[in-house]
Every structure is written in structure tokens, then in C-alpha cells.
Amino acid sequence: MTEPPRKRMVKRPTGGTDEGRPQPARLKTAKMRTPSQQAWLERQINDPFSAKARAHGYRSRAAYKLTEIDDKLHVLKPGAKVIDLGLAPGGWTQVAIERGVRDIVGVDLLPVDPMPPAHILQMDFTDPSCGPMLMDLLGGAPDVVLSDMAPNTVGHRQTDHLRIVGLIEAAVDFALEVLKPGGVFIAKAFQGGETAELIAHLKRHFTDVKNFKPKASRADSSELYLVATGFKGRPTP
């Protein structure tokens, strides 16, 4: 009598659960990191957009926020003049250059590795001398002003909130002063009452204003982007 065929033993894949889904990667050691720092690093390791950015050579996952916005607007193109406020580490400027922009200047408090043909200033954007320097380097009025700025926080919620709002307002004021008619302003903001006020302010000077939540913006973040198109011209005194 012949024996029944034996069942082949299949080794369960490693790195997954019983349901077959991969387990989140965890850091093996904290190395003197605080719990919040540890959590942030683990989130970065497991974040698909961070992995895509590393594979593509982008300096930050924020690059995918701008690519998604520009896929809808198509404003980053050859011949456009662009100013990038708060460009460090350079993901947004990389996207602009990749899409054909050659006239681009940026500023940040932090040092940024060169990205030819971009001109980069390391200074405080709120310094009164910064705006004229950006305009001199650009050599004309911008078609697009980008702002992914975020202030240094001090840990006091109310103070940090005021700094955030103040920086957004400074970016708006700058855009209204320098943009070409028909120009575009894209800026990071945060959900709250002040956002509604900013949108109302922008609507007085642009033909269309929307808030936009890119897929690359984490779901648990209050971050959103103000996208204003069709600049009507400089406000009258």
C-alpha cells in the first residue's frame, strides 16, 4: 500500500504578524533619546513618504507635499521665478528645480547645502534686509512664493502659537508686496480660527484661495496648506 503524499512544511515569512502584515520597525536602543524623540524616529523609519524621499534622493518627505500641490496647479515650470521661504533642508527647492525652474532663491535660518542654480541665503526671513536681498538675487518679481516655514518653538503653547501665526502673516505680507500680477502663493498653516482669517485676507487679493491637505501631510497633524492663485496686484496704500 502506498503512503499518502507528505505535506510540505512551509516556513512562515519573518518580519510579519500571523495575518501576514509587516510589523512596524522599532529602534533597538534609545541611545539617550527622550521618549518623544524615540517615537519621532520610529515614525520616520516606518513612514512610506520618508522611505520614498530617501529612495528618490529628496532631502525631505515634504517634497511630496509640493509635488501633489503642483500636480494640480502646474506653476513650477521653466521660465517661472520662485522664492522659497524656509527652504531647509531643501526638498521644495529640489522639486522646483526638477520641474524646470532655474530662477529660484531661498532663505532659512539653518545652513543648506548648495543646490545650483538656486541662490540660498542663511538668515532670518523677518530681518528687514532679507526681502530686498531675495529680490536682488532673483532679479525680478516672482511668479510663485512658497513658504514651508515653521518657527523655533519654546515649549509654551500660547507663545509658540503666536510665533506660528506671526510667521505666516509675515509670509503673506511679503507675497503681497513682491508677487507679479497673476502670481501664486503657497504656504504652510495650521487649522484654527486664524486660518479662516488668513483665507479671508488672501481672498481680497487673489482670485482663488483654498486650503489643501496633501497625502504626505500626516493625518494626525493640524498642518494644512494655503494655496492662493491669481494675484490681483499690490494692495493700494
Structural account:
- This protein is an alpha/beta fold and 237 residues long.
- The protein has one domain (60-231): Vaccinia Virus protein VP39 (Rossmann fold, 3-Layer(aba) Sandwich).
- The protein has helices at 35-46, 48-56, 63-73, 91-98, 130-138, 157-178, 193-203, and strands spanning 81-85, 103-108, 119-122, 144-147, 184-190, 206-212, 223-231.
- It has a 7-stranded mixed sheet, sandwiched between helices.
- The model is unreliable at 7-27 (pLDDT under 50).
Write the layout of secondary structure elements.
Layout: H1 35-46, H2 48-56, H3 63-73, E1 81-85, H4 91-98, E2 103-108, E3 119-122, H5 130-138, E4 144-147, H6 157-178, E5 184-190, H7 193-203, E6 206-212, E7 223-231
Parallel strand pairs: 1-2, 1-4, 2-3, 4-5
Antiparallel strand pairs: 5-7, 6-7
Helix pairs in contact: 3-4
Provide a concise account of the structure shown.
The protein has about 240 residues and is α/β, with parallel strands linked by helices. Helix content is about 35%, strand content about 20%. It starts with about 35 loop residues before the first helix and ends in a 6-residue tail after the last strand.
List key phrases describing it:
237 residues, alpha/beta, Rossmann fold, seven-stranded mixed beta sheet, 7 helices
